[in-house]
């Protein structure tokens, strides 16, 4: 075994959830690594002595719970657990804030603060109660903009000596940054992939997801289809239906052109209320009418039931109120009715990941409106 000389024993003792078993063995030897792994992952032995995130609050809904976790630097993230008949799904965050700035998502309004470490991602799964049988990277942040840490966390979660989580129970939901999509295609991981598409032409997508400008919509679609072909598995297209914006005949036609006869499921989503006034939530009839049109053009479509709205835990609502005093690095108001106003901060890939230098206030405020995240 090759010893990883860049990792020192003190690094592992400080934050062991960030290492695979074999990394630990290469630095600490088998006996010590085995002992620590048992302490980390066996239900009876696991203690909080190695944890770097703590539960700050739990918001309880009927079948949904939202956890607010405090990180070691005082920032907060949120993680949602959804109880289903077959087990529990955990929706994890990958960043504090998010650089993409989707207009329908409260997380984007906070801007990007920092990436989560592999350990912080893994601990969200460990700390959630219930028998977790599905992990979705759909919380706060764009997972593929935190590529290395997300992939590392998956390797840790599927480590046989640890949780041994089945890889095909893991879904990454992404807006589709092209270089990372290409990299992901080449990984030997059998994860499920969801593309948050939300539009069928460049202009509309750029308006809805202002910081994904520069990624050609057709290439983004081709990259997810290429993933599907390479791994011989179905992919999901998430499509947030916005009446008057992306529910026209042309949208039906274009979706048919891209996805007919492909191994694709289209998930129609309803906007969950945030402070964005430019997006209207479709009613049931509008959703059903659009679904029927897509069905007629040969597509497989599901209307995705949104859960957790009552505790501001549904998609687009997970802005941690504990971080509320942070000011945004992305523009708050994009008017999609005209579709011509652009982000004042849309200056390419590197700037997408510039962190917000203004520190979040470790506020004790409890009564704000927004929560945080997701796709
Ligand atoms: S929907 Fe996802 S990618 Fe878009 S701003 Fe929210 S967290 Fe970021």
Automatic annotation (TrEMBL):
SUPFAM superfamilies: Radical SAM enzymes
Gene Ontology MF annotations: 4 iron, 4 sulfur cluster binding; metal ion binding; RNA methyltransferase activity
Keyword Glycoprotein applies: no
Record-annotated Radical SAM core domain positions: 84-310
Region Disordered, annotated ranges: 341-375
Protein name as catalogued: 23S rRNA methyltransferase
Keywords: 4Fe-4S, Cytoplasm, Iron, Iron-sulfur, Metal-binding, Methyltransferase, S-adenosyl-L-methionine, Transferase
Gene Ontology cellular component annotations, sorted alphabetically: cytoplasm
InterPro entries the UniProt entry points to: Aldolase_TIM, Elp3/MiaA/NifB-like_rSAM, Methyltransferase_A, rRNA_lsu_MTrfase_RlmN/Cfr, rSAM, rSAM_sf
Chief place where the protein resides: cytoplasm
Zinc-finger listed as a keyword: no
Swiss-Prot/TrEMBL cofactor(s): [4Fe-4S] cluster
UniProt cross-references to Pfam families, sorted A to Z: Radical_SAM (PF04055)
GO biological process: rRNA base methylation; tRNA methylation
Domain of life the protein comes from: Bacteria
Biased composition (Basic residues): 354-368
Subcellular location(s) of the protein: Cytoplasm
């Amino acid at each position: 075994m090759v010893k990883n000389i860049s990792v020192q024993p003190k690094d592992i003792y400080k934050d062991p959830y960030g290492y695979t078993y074999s990394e630990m063995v290469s630095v600490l030897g088998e006996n010590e690594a085995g002992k620590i792994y048992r302490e980390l992952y066996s239900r009876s032995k696991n203690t909080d002595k190695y944890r770097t995130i703590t539960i700050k609050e739990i918001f309880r809904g009927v079948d949904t719970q939202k956890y607010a976790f405090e990180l070691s630097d005082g920032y907060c993230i949120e993680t949602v657990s959804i109880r289903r008949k077959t087990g529990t799904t955990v929706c994890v965050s990958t960043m504090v804030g998010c650089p993409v700035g989707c207009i329908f998502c409260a997380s984007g309004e906070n801007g990007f603060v920092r990436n989560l470490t592999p350990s912080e991602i893994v601990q969200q799964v460990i700390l959630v109660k219930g028998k977790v049988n599905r992990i979705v990277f759909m919380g706060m942040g764009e997972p593929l903009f935190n590529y290395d840490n997300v992939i590392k966390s998956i390797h840790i979660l599927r480590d046989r000596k640890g949780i041994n989580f089945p890889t095909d129970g893991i879904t990454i939901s992404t807006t589709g940054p092209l270089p990372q999509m290409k990299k992901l295609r080449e990984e030997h991981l059998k994860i499920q992939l969801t593309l948050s598409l939300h539009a069928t032409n460049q202009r509309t997508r750029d308006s809805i997801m202002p910081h994904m400008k520069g990624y050609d919509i057709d290439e983004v679609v081709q990259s997810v289809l290429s993933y599907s072909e390479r791994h011989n598995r179905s992919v999901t297209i998430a499509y947030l239906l916005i009446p008057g914006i992306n529910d026209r005949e042309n949208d039906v036609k274009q979706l048919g052109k891209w996805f007919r006869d492909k191994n694709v499921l289209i998930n129609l989503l309803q906007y969950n209320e945030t402070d964005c006034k430019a997006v209207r939530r479709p009613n049931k009839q509008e959703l059903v009418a659009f679904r029927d049109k897509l069905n007629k053009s040969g597509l497989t479509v599901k209307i995705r039931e949104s859960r957790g709205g009552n505790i501001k835990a549904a998609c687009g609502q997970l802005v941690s109120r504990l971080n509320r005093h942070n000011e945004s690095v992305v523009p708050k108001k994009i008017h999609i009715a005209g579709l011509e106003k652009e982000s004042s901060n849309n200056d390419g890939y590197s700037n997408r990941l510039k962190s917000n230098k203004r520190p979040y206030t470790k506020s004790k405020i409890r009564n704000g409106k927004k929560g945080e995240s997701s796709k």
